[in-house]
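User: For my dataset I need records formatted as: sequence, then structure tokens, nothing else. Please produce one.
Assistant:
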Amino acid sequence: MLKLKSIADSIPNLGYILFSTASLLIFIIAFLFNFGSYKLDIADTASLIFLYSSLGLIIKNSQFDKSKFYRFFLLSLSLLLISAVFKLLHIRSKEMFIIAFIFAILSYSVYFLKKKSKSILDYIKWFYFSSFMLLKLITINHYFYFDEIWVMNFISTVLIVILIYIKHLKTPNWLSL
């Protein structure tokens, strides 16, 4: 079975930091300076690259996959995949998507609440994960408030990348791990 953690571990931390920083700079430049009709395409692509490269950094530097709640999260992902197949077949799947995303948020929230010592990074990760799941639910089902939740998710992603970098700044060879 191919694990997301093993894929994330194969890329060094420096790769994630450089990739997310470059995509964030491209996003800011494309957003601030008008590139004509390509402005939104460049900004959207750069923001997606930033969010997913940052997600790789978060997965690599987390302990969630070692907890007992990770199995519940995998169960929600399997329900999410079944929902996606139903959506592709044009079978009603909105309720299955809602259940899958809520189950994913609950599994991470229970893991977060059971954690003994919590840092500010843990709180921001919980906020990031919850807003990321809500963002995907809104995107798939075409609900309202996409922009507001996207901004919250984007800001929390920037904070997480900075805090992970600061946390491991004194660790020798952390960027090459």
